[in-house]
Amino acid sequence: MIPFSKDFAVPLSFVAILLAGCSAPKHISPEFGESFTKAFHAQVMNPDAPINRAPVTTMPGPLANAIYKNKYEHPMKEIDSDSDSKDNNTDIMAD
């Protein structure tokens, strides 16, 4: 008889988990993956893009630049922490 130890239990439990994963039912419905396929095809903006080489109509440059600045550059600005420390000279730890 093999003595039951931690060195034997860990690999045995790992093998048991692997075998349990392999025993999943093999009967897949005919609609399997249909929702993914529909969502993928719904995201295609222009399905004729490889055939049609016409340039894409885009928004004007100044408008795109203004949207970029409002959306991305504003949150990236650093807050000046020195002004806060000059205004508030109270000691937090003082009682």
UniProtKB/TrEMBL annotation:
Residues 74-89 have a biased composition (Basic and acidic residues). It comes from the Bacteria. Residues 74-95 are annotated as: Disordered. This is Lipoprotein.
